[in-house]
Amino acid sequence: MSNYKARIVETPAGPTRVWEKGRGKKLGYLAGLNGLPKWSPFLDKLAETHRVIVPSLPGYPGGPSSEPLDTQLDWVLAARDALVAAGLDGADLIGASVGGALAAEVAALWPKSVRKLVLIAPFGLYDSDTPIADVFAQRPGQTTVLLSEKPTDYAGYLSVPKEGDAGEWEVQTLRAHIAAASLIWPLGDTRLSKRLMRIMAPTLILWGHNDHVIPLSYARRFAEGIGAGTKVKIVRKAGHTLEFDEPKSAARTIDSFLAS
Amino acid sequence: MMGLASTPKPIVTSHPVAHWMDTPFADLCHALKYLIARVTVLRHHLRQMAKSHKREDAMKVLWFHLMPYQDLPADFKDKHNSVWVDIDPGLFDPLRGHQHYHEYMDQLEYAAKAGFHGICVNEHHSNAYGMMPSPNLIAATLARNTRDAALCVLGNSVALYNPPTRVAEEMAMLDCISGGRLIAGFPVGTPMDTCYAYGQNPAKLRDRYYEGIDLVLKAWAADKPFAFNGRYTQQRYVNCWPRPVQKQPPVWIPGGGSVETWQMCAERSFVYANLSYFGHQASMTHVKGFWGEMKRLGKEPNPFQAAFLQFVGVAETRAEAEKLYHEPANYFYNRCLHTDPAYANPPGYTSEATVRARITSQVLRAAEESRKATRAGGGAKFFEEGHVVIGSPDEVAEKLLTVCKEMHVGHLLLLLHFGNMSRDLTKYNTDLFATKVLPQIKHLYEKEWEDHWWPTGMPKNPSKNAAHAKSTFTTAGVAAQ
Questions:
Q1: Do A139 and B356 touch (CB under 8 A)?
Q2: What is the CATH number of the domain that holds B336?
Q3: What end-to-end distance do the CA atoms of chain A give, in Å?
């Protein structure tokens, strides 16, 4: 794992980190709740068959500040700007969790900017009969258990590296959570339902079978709402962070969808 | 005698010299009587001024009520998740609520009559130890039924009101009704109240709060309607009507260990009011942090710019106090503070600066201690660790003087009712404090510092229209006159 390249691109929101690895067709990835504090095995698997390009969203590790962003429009524009600056306009795009809500928005508002779309357990909808869990009201140490089916591994991935500064790492994590809260507090409903039908890119919807954050029933809601053809795939032994829980299975499914 | 009878009564005039010149001097006796009357009035005014000056320049002690619900079951900690946010609505009996509200307002009014300088209320939501989602409702009642005490509303969480102009209006109403006795408290509000019970986004809460305070203060100060184009509030016409009696009621900021709160109070000359459930030992660090910020900014260390909260139980002896106050303290610390730590720290509520300063949130501490106490069998050391200061009047006075001096604090907020304390015990505690402790501590800082953060009351020369208040229907209507 590694051998990825890092660069900084300019966006209207500020300097933005872009990670890149692999050869082939461009494939973008917008990460979820905690962002990407480190490179991940999932990206390695994708990079075996694609040129994986990973821009950071505002507030997340490597991203500019999310503080100036007030509205959903601000966030959608920031996501679009990051994708364009990273050279991903018109490419295939994966969005996970919070990043999934923004990937869907970009695909809806700029239909030609996304060739094929992969949504991994995205936020953006809310069903009061099957509410989304409150990821922000968790006791210390419980969040990883809620998010992942392999909480120890996931906590390890999020932990400060040996050579890292624990204090700065904590602040970086806090910024990511603030960014997530800024976008999806309090219910996770970004009113995306009003725009789903505008998505014209063929879409794969991936959901962890044991997602304790967003119930499985939301996969169907997304599939029914999206204007283009959709395919739903449930990944066993995976939670909300399915690309961390089952990186090989997730990458294989995505690769197969993009190649079809 | 005819001349005396026909002469206007000089005692009601406000310009004695003019009337003196108008008075016919034919009757020497009348002139002497007139002079004596003027001197008497003048001496009275001088005494009043001296008294008022003295009072305003010494320690202020305020009687604070949280208004806890008293019937949480004994097994509350075992069977319920939290006293806050998701507290079981089925536990609330409205008939008990009726009794509680009346009893608690009686207690606050009693404290005002007993000689406390101020009475104090605050705001909580979905909370069983604080039954005041709207402190302004309670304060309005208190304004009618009290005369001299300051009304300390600690406060209104301005970020919860849309637009915050509502806060400016209601507080202006309170200041009018009370005759200029309002202290305007603006807490950012706890995470439970603001982010969870009221759904505010923690990522924006503090910024929204700052903007809300700006709007309220501007609304009070403006002499004409204005447009407000804020990040969170846009209003074409801001026009606070009524206007507060005090041009700007004193602003107190209830806070814990937030670096930003210290900075705001220091920079904007607001009172920093440290509210801790864990007594002076916990407050000490925070209040010293505030004074550190004041020093850094080169500000005058006026003790009246700081306040802190202390639970107190007075009895004839310490042993008796332990006996009397154990039950209500135990109820408070082991039922009322049973809070789910999941609600303690939404992202953004604690700023980067505070995280870097490694300051633990009081809420998290409360939740952790409450749960620890459960595991340990319910033995929180609330007396030993000074969460509640108990003892004889002399012991309590000595302790409070020591603590106030060490913290350099000129406003002392007291919880003389806490937990499920009975009506009789509250009265006993209040009486004993008012008669035997208050006289020993109220002279602290006397004539050393000027208190710029205390309500002014009605102006000395009320406008012509204000005089008509005397013709209202009840005596309560002229409470502030």
A1: no
A2: 3.20.20.30
A3: 27
